[in-house]
Amino acid sequence: MTRGFEPPDPFAATLERLANDMWDGPAGREPGAARGSMGVGGIPIDTIRADFPILSERVNGRPLVFLDNAATTQRPNCVIERVARYYSREHSNIHRGAHALAARATDAYEDARRETAAFIGAGADEIVFARGATEALNLVAHSFVKPYLKPGDEILLTALEHHANIVPWQMIARETGARITVCPVDDDGQLMLGEFERMVTPRARFVSITHVSNALGTVMPIREAVAIAHRRHVPVCVDGAQSAAHIPVNVEELDCDFYAFSGHKALGPTGIGALYGKASMLERGAPYQGGGNMIEDVTFESTRYQPAPRRFEAGTGNIAGAVGLAEALRYLRRIGMEEIERREDALMEYLLEGLRSAPGVSVVGGWRPRRVCAVSLKVDGIPDARVGGALDQLGIAVRAGHHCAQPGLRRFGVESTVRPSLSFYNTFDEIDALLDGLKGM
Ligand SMILES: *Cc1c(COP(=O)(O)O)cnc(C)c1O
Q1: Which of 160, 272, 162, 248 has its CA nearest to residue 424?
Q2: How close is the Cα of 3 to the center of ligand 1, in Å?
Q3: Fewest Cβ atoms closer than 10 Å to its Cβ: which of 53, 95, 251, 413?
């Protein structure tokens, strides 16, 4: 495919602005003196926040304090503009058609695949676009695991999985006579690796495990779990919905066989996500959806499929979504995932410290473990929905409910929690607002 169109890069303008703003004053570089305006990797926080138009919204007469980032993040201007530019100047269907726009759209889509791959250290042919983490996990279950399952085989999960990493496995277990086994977590929400090792039995065919718990924010020891499973030749899928936008992820280092994540939790559009699969794994899958785009040749008797990854992308996909996702990942890379992790760690430490001294507040999973993005709490004597509603009156968005992780919460003896969750664009002042709100209950 020839590259007949070089779009102007709106990101260059953002970069230039970032470079200029960086030297506006020392405030962004002095955490002690001006904690509230401390930046991310040398970029002042106000500059970052200005990239996200929705952060200037007012809710219930107050400035919006968006602390629901584990449910979805917000979009920077460059993503909004990139999607608009795609529709204004590049849109057509892809991989077909001998015209210039088809080439532009195909170039943009395949460029998005390369960018998505680079973001997690994968090869471009190892990325399948899907609707999100949910569809990616369903794809793994149906295309890569179900064809190999026999009655009595085991699929090993952990006690802290999102429903998206439970229900698809139940569906294929029911169809094949396989069963689900569940590795416990301890009272700190940490995976019990000894148990895990014991549970990778000779009957275990597959492991699927979350990277970061969306309910508790605790982090799973993926590398260790993968090493244990691989010693027994059991492939591992990682649900990366809560890790991709918060900590640096390299699938080669993790050595996982699959890694699934959602665009909308990583500053990108809704309805797009990605599945990484090791090239050797992708070659072994049987597509579970058929249609256009994924075929090489069709007769009424039989069909020859495209090679991976396209054989797993039946029909017209979310082209604009993929293009927007790539722009979001470029934005994250430009700031730097290490810097983002450092910023969010500092915010989380500050939040946990504040929660500790808030009367009547307890944290599910205790105070000890590291939290990424999310933390689940209870306020003594006040129902979660009331806490959420009261905070909303103050313009503060948090989640109250079961967070699509009912078995995980029940492990800790609760049916629901209040869950604030962070992004690097949040501020220490916003956390103060949340803490004040909780103390005023
Ligand atoms: C959000 C989430 C999912 C599902 O993501 P969708 O974008 O809804 O498909 C899966 N796993 C975890 C851990 C999540 O947080």
Answers
A1: 248
A2: 35
A3: 413
**Three-state SS at 134:** helix
Distance CA 115, CA 122 (A): 10
Q: Is the pTM of this model over 0.85?
A: yes
Query: Which residue's C-alpha comes closest to atom 1 of ligand 1?
Result: 241
List, chain by chain if needed, residues with CB within 6 Å of any ligand 1 atom.
132-134, 162, 164-165, 210, 214, 239, 241-242, 262, 264-265
The single residue of 78, 183, 256, 404 carrying the catalytic annotation is: 404
What's the chain's length in residues?
441
Q: How many CB atoms lie within 10 A of CB 232?
A: 12
In angstroms, the CA 320 to CA 108 distance is 9
Question: 228: CA distance to ligand 1 center in Å?
Answer: 25
* 129, 139, 214, 372: residue to mutate for ligand 1 pocket, most atoms within 8 A of CB: 214
Active site residue 404: yes
Structural domains of the chain, ranges and CATH numbers in brackets: 11-74+336-439 (3.90.1150.10), 79-334 (3.40.640.10)
Which amino acid is residue 299, in one-letter code? T
Task: Say which amino acid occupies 95.
Answer: H
* Atom number of ligand 1 nearest to Cα 70: 15
Give CA–CA dist 60/102, Å, rounded. 45
Quote the CA–CA distance of 76 and 370 in Å, as a whole number: 28
Using a 10 angstrom Cβ sphere, with 0-12 exposed, 13-18 middle and 19 or more buried, the burial of residue 321 is buried
pLDDT at residue 35 in the model: 58
Ligand 1 atom closest to Cα of residue 136: 9
Q: For CA atoms 116, 121, 125, 127, give the dihedral sign.
A: negative
CA of 267 to the centre of ligand 1 (A): 14
pLDDT digits (tens, 9 = 90+) for 179-222: 999 999 999 999 999 999 999 999 999 999 999 999 999 999 99
Residue 26, both tokens: 């020392």
Strand (E) positions, 357-402? Answer: 361-363, 377-379, 396-397, 399-401
Which residues are CB-contacts of 207 (< 8 A; sequence separation ≥ 6)?
155, 156, 157, 200, 225, 229, 234, 235, 236, 237
Contacting residues for 131 by C-beta, under 8 A, at least 6 apart: 271, 272, 273, 318
Ligand 1 atom index nearest CA of 263: 7
Compute the chain's Rg from CA coordinates. Answer: 22
Task: Tell how far the Cα of 107 is from the centroid of ligand 1, in angstroms.
Answer: 28
Q: What is the tens place of the pLDDT at every residue in 106-127?
A: 999 999 999 999 999 999 999 9
